[in-house]
Amino acid sequence: MANKTAYLDAPGTPLRIGDSEIPIPGPDDIVVKNHAIAINPVDNMISTTGLGPTSWPIVLGSDLAGSVHAVGANLTRFKPGDRVIGFAQWLIRRTPADGAFSLYTRLPAGNAAILPDGISYTDGAVLGMAIGTAVSGLNEEKCLGLPFPSLTPAQTGGVLVVYGASSSIGSMATQLATASGIRVIAIASPANFELCRQCGATDTFSYKHPTVVDEVVAAVGSDTFVGIFESISSSASYKISLAILEKLGGGRMACSPPGPTTLPGNVKAEMMIAMGEHSIPVFEHFVTQALESGQLKCQPPPLVVGNGLESLQTALETLQAGVSGRKMVVTL
Ligand SMILES: NC(=O)c1ccc[n+]([C@@H]2O[C@H](COP(=O)([O-])OP(=O)(O)OC[C@H]3O[C@@H](n4cnc5c(N)ncnc54)[C@H](OP(=O)(O)O)[C@@H]3O)[C@@H](O)[C@H]2O)c1
């Protein structure tokens, strides 16, 4: 069967389903037959604003789960038929074959991992881009510079604040920091406190509570404060995050765009960037075993919007309307 793809012909237009070739893998790529695709805010942002791409049509989509269709010549880690999750890299490769909004997608093998048999494609689809982003914010030296997650973590005595801990990237950051032996203080809506705790947070506070800054500072206690993972990056969230940093004597903050406009001298803020090679060690050496043991969970839980590429447009619109503690997924 030939490939089918959901094309975005121009910003603000509905996705168009059309025929395409099944991608050919480069030597370090795999091609995946997608069984589930998750939607990210960047898909929505680009589909409405057109910011980023320089030629059209484009194929959106970063998160996928499916079975390996073809493997590149250099690879031994995967074989056809393997169940995998992955983070497609269309945002840097810029070619239609590398977008997840297709029946078949090409991606670098380093951004993929075996999905254990007991976990559905629908659940696994929520993981890819969140892993890339959380690893950038947590582990890249320019951001928080924390140790990589471990399958056998030892407590470090460090404590991290995750703002927006019920979001996709925030819940992944909570899980991965916990797997680095770092205690996590979560800031989210009370309705999502249980989700934050399932991801490993030891303390949960509401950003709507007027004394949230003092509550978070008290919860840091005598542990070593290692920084803030800022998933929301709005003027309201920066007001709270910077007030926490001020009371704790400064520190590091990993931000999702846009960064804060002004910063005190004792605060170092850097943007996390999901795409790229920084997360390869985590995809290769942590994800599969951690999923098998239950150390890594597919959070936030998927909300299946529909079946078939035709449902991707509805999924984009549902995400645009706002989500809380869920990730939009389309099954194929
Ligand atoms: N830099 C990168 O490479 C990169 C990669 C991925 C994502 N991002 C960006 O990171 C952000 C989060 O992405 P995501 O996929 O994790 O989003 P998401 O899962 O769709 O985020 C939804 C969550 O955000 C929380 N939220 C929404 N408005 C909030 C507010 N005003 N204050 C506090 N929490 C709020 C909600 O929490 P409650 O319901 O608990 O309030 C909700 O659970 C987006 O802006 C996205 O574009 C950047």
Task: Give your account of this protein's structure.
With 332 residues, the chain is of the alpha/beta class. The protein is built from eleven helices and 15 strands. The strands form three sheets. Strands 3, 4, 5, 6, 7, 14 and 15 form a seven-stranded mixed β-sheet that branches. It has a six-stranded parallel β-sheet with strand order 10-9-8-11-12-13, sandwiched between helices. The model has no long low-confidence stretch (mean pLDDT 97). The site of NADP nicotinamide-adenine-dinucleotide phosphate has 28 residues, from α1, α4, α5 and α8.
Q: How are the elements arranged and paired?
A:
Layout: E1 3-7, E2 16-20, E3 29-38, H1 41-49, E4 63-71, E5 83-87, H2 90-93, E6 104-108, E7 112-114, H3 121-124, H4 128-139, E8 158-163, H5 168-178, E9 183-188, H6 193-198, E10 203-206, H7 212-220, E11 224-230, H8 235-247, E12 251-255, E13 267-271, H9 280-285, H10 287-293, E14 302-307, H11 312-321, E15 327-331
Parallel strand pairs: 8-9, 8-11, 9-10, 11-12, 12-13, 14-15
Antiparallel strand pairs: 1-2, 3-4, 3-6, 3-15, 4-5, 5-7
Helix pairs in contact: 1-11, 4-5, 7-8
